[in-house]
Design brief:
four-stranded mixed sheet; 16% strand; 48% helix; 12 strands; Ribosomal Protein L15, Chain: K, domain 2; Four Helix Bundle (Hemerythrin (Met), subunit A); 359 residues
């Protein structure tokens, strides 16, 4: 089972027997057998015939429509899980902050410890005097987590840690043409953020699909506040995997020369503001650089998208040691195991949520 990405600028997706048949406007053709497919991701303007759409729905293929930098547009929604008892457990915990603390503590601790591990690795390779002091501040935050009894305080710790982390992360990007001005999104303001945003989106939808498969309600989370239509649990349970699956891969894509400067294209700030939604925070961060030119939001080209997509799938299939079982399994299966562990904590079968930690 695998993920099929549609990255061509345009084309037509039709039905041929019990398979999908894609024809790009350049003449390339491809048959997609749905028994070998578990999700479709569209990052382009593909025309989908009604017969193809019915076939996708009949097979209940997870289908997501994104823009070129991973911003969500739409997805096909199928019947929700019928495990009402698991969802009842979610809402029971939601009404009691005391029961949420062991879960949120584990999620925040996992994210920060994985961030710290990468920061320490960067420190060993980089001669930057400020990194050591930042690492010490991060360790102080981690030390506060076990004794913190407020979810709001844990959220604050996670927010401060993100600033420390990304102030060090930038030193792990080696090519001179690769820019990182600090974390930005909607739109990303540099080529490193363009890759981070896309990979975070890919990770989010993997986690989201596994959450639904486990019979959980993806909208009922605990670290991320509840908001209308926000799938808070999906954001919660992806946190511990950001560093091992997305951040380290981003660094490798640039540092190993897999991504080239020509894999990106740029637009002026004025162009982006006029053609897509931009948050006020992002708009404020579009400023003049030392050369007197505006920082320009960045987009991956078709070739760049193909490189990032294929490398992410390869990363998801990488076998690693999973300590709770002592087995070597793929990252995809690690996420599935962690979701099962989360369910056991919800049911009271285990007391503390224990995150996946990188070594």
């Amino acid at each position: 089972m695998g993920t099929i990405y549609f990255i061509s600028e345009s084309g037509k997706l039709g039905k041929q027997d019990d398979a999908l048949f894609f024809t790009s406007y350049t003449g390339n053709k491809r048959i997609i057998f749905l028994h070998e497919t578990d999700r479709l991701i569209f990052l382009s303007g593909v025309d989908i015939s009604s017969s193809a759409l019915k076939l996708i729905m009949r097979h209940k293929i997870d289908t997501v429509f994104l823009n070129r930098n991973g911003l969500f547009n739409a997805k096909l929604e199928f019947e929700h899980g019928k495990n009402v008892f698991t969802r009842r457990d979610q809402f029971r915990v939601l009404e009691n902050e005391y029961l949420q603390i062991p879960i949120v503590t584990g999620i925040v601790e996992g994210k920060l410890k994985n961030q710290l591990a990468l920061m320490q690795k960067i420190n060993r390779k980089t001669e930057q005097n400020t990194i050591e002091s930042t690492i010490n501040e991060m360790q102080k935050l981690i030390n506060k987590i076990p004794v913190t009894k407020s979810i709001e305080t844990l959220r604050g710790i996670e927010g401060v840690a993100a600033k420390y982390y990304f102030s060090v992360f930038k030193y792990n990007i080696k090519p001179a043409w690769a820019n990182f001005y600090g974390r930005s999104k909607n739109p990303p303001l540099d080529n490193v953020n363009a890759v981070l945003s896309l990979l975070y989106t890919y990770l989010y939808y993997r986690v989201d699909a596994l959450i639904e498969a486990a019979g959980l309600d993806p909208c009922v989370g605990y670290l991320h506040k509840l908001e209308y239509s926000r799938r808070s649990l999906s954001f919660d349970l992806m946190e511990e995997f950001r560093v091992p699956l997305c951040d380290t891969l981003t660094c490798a894509l640039f540092n190993l020369g897999i991504l080239k400067e020509e894999d990106f294209e740029y637009k002026t700030a004025d162009d982006v503001v006029s053609t897509m939604p931009v948050t006020p925070e992002c708009l404020n961060s579009i400023s003049e650089n030392d050369a007197g030119k505006k920082k320009i939001p960045t987009f991956l080209t078709k070739t760049g998208l193909q490189k990032v997509s294929s490398q992410f799938d390869e990363k998801m299939n990488t076998l690693i040691l999973y300590p709770p079982t002592g087995e070597r399994i793929s990252y995809f299966n690690v996420i599935a195991h962690q979701i099962d562990h989360f369910k056991r904590v919800l049911k009271g079968e285990e007391k503390q949520y224990k995150p996946f930690l990188i070594r």
